Each structure stands twice: as C-alpha cells, then as structure tokens.
Amino acid sequence: MKERLLSNACGDGKVCCSQLSTNPTSASVESVDNHPNLHLLPDECGKIFVNKLLGGRAAHLYQYPWITLISYKTRLGPQFECGGSLINERYVLTAAHCITNLTLLGVRIGEHDLDTITDCEGNPPTLTCESKLQDIRIEEAIPHPEYHGKPNIKNDIGLLRLKKPVDLSFKNAGLICLPVSRDLLGRNLGGQHATVAGWGYTEKGYISHKLLEDYVPIHTAESCRELYNR
Predict the structure, then answer these.
(1) Rounded Cα distance, 59 and 72, in Å
(2) Which residue among 35, 78, 106, 166 is least enclosed by CB atoms within 10 Å?
(3) pLDDT per residue over 82-103, tens digit each?
(4) Can you tell me the distance from the alpha carbon of 15 to that of 156, in angstroms, rounded to the nearest whole number?
(5) Using an 8 Å Cβ cutoff, are 83 and 66 in contact?
(6) What CA–CA distances, in Å, run from 141 to 15, 35, 86?
(7) Contacts of 212 by beta carbon, 8 Å cutoff, 6+ apart
(8) b/e string for 37-48 if b means 16 or more Cβ within 10 A?
(9) CA angle at residue 95 from 62 to 119, to 5 degrees?
(10) With contact defined as beta carbons under 8 Å apart, do 115 and 211 qualify?
(11) Is the peptide bond before 36 cis (omega within 30 degrees of 0)?
C-alpha cells in the first residue's frame, strides 16, 4: 500500500486520488488484500465527532483528530512548518518536501489552536475544552525514493516513523483511513469533492493558528489536461 500511495503523488503535497481509482487490475487489488503489512493499518479510522459543515472555514474541536503538526529546528527555535496525517500509531503520512534536507524535531498530535494552551468550543453550559497534546520525537523520515523537488515536483510524498506510539485513547488523537478496500480502489472520484484541513496561509494571505477546513473538487486526469492546455 505504501508503494501505491507513493507512486500516485502528484506534487505540492498532494496525492491524485483520481489516479488511485483508475480501474486497478485484479492482480493489484489482490496484492493489497494480501499484503503482509495490511494488519498495521487500523480496523477503525476516519471517525469524527461533529457533523461536517460544507463551505465552513474553521474546523471544530475533535473534527480531524488525525491531523498533525511537524516541528523543525530553525534559527528562530522550534517551529511548526508542515502538517501530516496519522495513519497508525507509529506513522504519519506527509509530503516529501516536508521531510527532505530539513532538521526534523517531532510531531504534535491533538493541536487545534496554536494560540491557546486549552482549546475550547461552545458556551456554558455546553462548553467543551481540551488541553491534551502529544509531542513525539521522530525516529525515521522516509521520503519517496524518486522524489524530485522544484521546479518539476514529482513523487512528493513520504512517511514519518515516530519514536513511540501515539496514545489513541484521547478523543483528539485518531487515525485517517487509507484506500485499501476493493470498493475504494475501484471508485471513480472524479467530479466529487475532497476535504482539506490544516494550518497555514489562508486565501487572504495570513497564517492561521487555528485548524481550518475547506472542500475542493477532484478533477480527473483528462479534465486537468484540458484545463492546463488553456
């Protein structure tokens, strides 16, 4: 499965899901079903504790418990400069440009608002607050072996192995699902919408310290070629 994900990276920290779903052969599906490491992926994943709001900007507390922050050693001290997704208790899926030729420090799980120690949502008597954070050192960075940076970015995907397991007993620590089932591998995602979430620059040009979400259309390879040819 790792090789299949890495082979479908399409630049700028993205995986082309439409490529993942382009009618794989029965042999490729069978190889995923019988992969010896398939048991390392969770049986339960992708759970959220609130209803998604289409077009919303600020994410809700506990909505994306698999979203992580990656910290680096910089001239200004430790800084969060990239994100990733927790796929099991020891591995984070991220972009290769986030883990190549950089001094990595660790991964934070459970963050929501960088400006607050305790994250709260709602109003009394239904106020919900969370203060648990998990900061875990990185044991190994594994970029795609054929990753190429700018100007022609290719295979921009990689994994981080953590030095110790994430404690998944907390509500703000969860796992994202990977497309390993026959149904997902064969599904045509073109024309549907994907959810993106994270911290960073907004469309207004400022950096958000609060977890944001957005919904973007998934284009087929054919529609992308048509758009770029214009």
Answers:
(1) 24
(2) 78
(3) 999 999 999 999 999 999 999 9
(4) 8
(5) no
(6) 18, 22, 14
(7) 57, 58, 59, 197, 198, 199, 202
(8) eeeebbeeeeee
(9) 20
(10) no
(11) no
How far is Cα 206 from Cα 221, in angstroms, rounded to an integer?
A: 31
For the residues of 145-182, what is the DSSP string, one character each?
Answer: TT-B-SSS-B---EEEEESS---TTSTT------S-SH
Start-to-end CA distance of the chain, whole Å, equals 35
Q: Report the distance separating Cα 30 and Cα 35, nearest Å.
A: 8
Q: Closest by alpha carbon to 107, among 201, 173, 41, 39?
A: 173
- SS3 (DSSP) at 222: helix
Whether residue 151 has a cis bond before it, omega within 30° of 0 = yes
At a CB cut-off of 8 Å and minimum separation 6, what does 150 contact?
none
For residue 210, give Cα distances in angstroms to 17, 34, 58, 114, 133: 27, 40, 7, 6, 15
Q: Is 211 strand, coil or helix?
A: strand
For the chain, the farthest-separated pair of C-alpha atoms sits apart, in whole angstroms, at 56
What tokens were used for 151?
């100007």
Buried b (16+ CB within 10 A) or exposed e, 182-205: eeebeeebbeeeeeeebbeeeeee
Q: What's the one-letter identity of residue 220?
A: T
Output the CA torsion sign for 86, 92, 98, 102. Answer: positive
pLDDT tens across 157-214, in order? 999 999 999 999 999 999 998 888 788 888 888 999 988 899 876 666 667 899 999 8
